[in-house]
Amino acid sequence: MGTLESWDRLYQEALESVPDMLARGRGVAVGFHTVVDGLHQARPGELDPLLAGNPDLAEAASSGTLSPPDELRSPSDVVAALSWSLAHSTALERVITDPATFRWLSATLPVDRPTVGGNSGNMALALADLGLPRVLVFAPPLHPLLVRLLAQAPRIQVLVDGQGSVPVTRAPVPAEDGALHWIFEYPSGLEVHLPSGTLSAARANRFIAAWNPGNHRLAEGTAWLEALAPVAGEFSHLVLSGFQLLSERYPDGTRFETWAQPLVDALGRVRRAAPRIRVHYEWASIASPEIRTYLLRHLLPKVDSLGLNEAEMAVMARDLGHPEWAASMGPRQVLETLRLLHEETGLRRIQLHVPGLYLTTSRSAVHTAQERLALAYTALAAAARSARGRATPGDLPSHLATPLAPAGVEAVEGLRSLPGALGDPSGPEGLRWGSLTAVAIPTRWVERPVWTVGLGDLISAVPFSLWQPY
């Protein structure tokens, strides 16, 4: 592998073979937060008058570039977190814990376009759009807008008491409205003028302010897993996320463990009820070191697979005791971090997605040829979603003409050239590095994406739904 022709052959093979693999799937369940995503498309100059007219917000924007707040308790916190995301051109999500702050944000920078959101909502829509025959999604108390958005994909089902899984259009609709994730989607080059200087986004990305009071303690997620256990054997794969919604401490004096442990216990009951189900956890931006440490020790040993991006991996390296790896994430540091994460948690599979590159590692036998096909097909789907906002099988062939990401090609070569590495990370047998088997491909690169929200969810959910360990 390594020439343009060889990459094109791999992508063509993926386009021809993966749709049949997806169509043969038994079904995937995804949880546990599904919300309405409220997209606000950034406009040039729109933040400047807001900051110029409010010295407190201007100061928050300047100080926020150094370190974002852990939660959003005020308009100043929102501005500080948004500024950090822009300054670093990095996706960031923070939870709004104050109702007045949510009202201020909704009035000041209103939603342009609602769509399905939340980790599980994004994953469900992506999998259903690409042809997986049965997708069960966590749903909070349904409301008309959420039902309308989910019903865009008829394969999506929800759990209903006494009925098991049913199409979302046949489920009760008890609520008038619900959770909303406000998303500031910004393009490469967007500038914001501060008293201390000008922020300029180096690449397109987004900042998410999550308003989800009903599941802020994950009680809805726990209840969903309890209801899933009796029917879990009907599904081959389970994908989870959502612990980023937790706070370390709550106004009533309880701590996050009070709410996290029942959910972890409920996952254990699902696994006992369906011993063959494969479980993936999708990491997310979590500010609290305590919560991250808890997940490393108590949740990850109970799942098979983990997905994360480059920013989350750097934080993981620090949490694992190696800040020097986080400071310089070259090929060796990436594999060292993933190797240690496998050893500390017992994870069978880790998937990393960074700009231009998808990489999976495993410490056990793996179908490497199928894994690389799944990654290539996912890269086409991600390109389609970036360029169009949705990805269906008919959209993917045109993205064979989308160029390969130069950074990804370089990263694959860097992995191949590592001292002690055996094989080719993009070849049929993958690359052997110590105890790890690694599979990596360069992605297709959309220069000016119109939609980045939920890309990480799609990128992790599609290959995992095809993962078949020995």
UniProtKB/TrEMBL annotation:
Keywords attached to this entry: Cytoplasm, Glycolysis, Kinase, Magnesium, Metal-binding, Transferase
Record's protein name: ADP-dependent glucokinase
InterPro entries assigned: ADP_PFK/GK, Ribokinase-like
MF GO annotations: kinase activity; metal ion binding; phosphotransferase activity, alcohol group as acceptor
Keyword Transport in annotation: no
Entry keyword annotation includes Iron: no
GO biological process annotation, one example: glycolytic process
A Pfam entry, by short name: ADP_PFK_GK
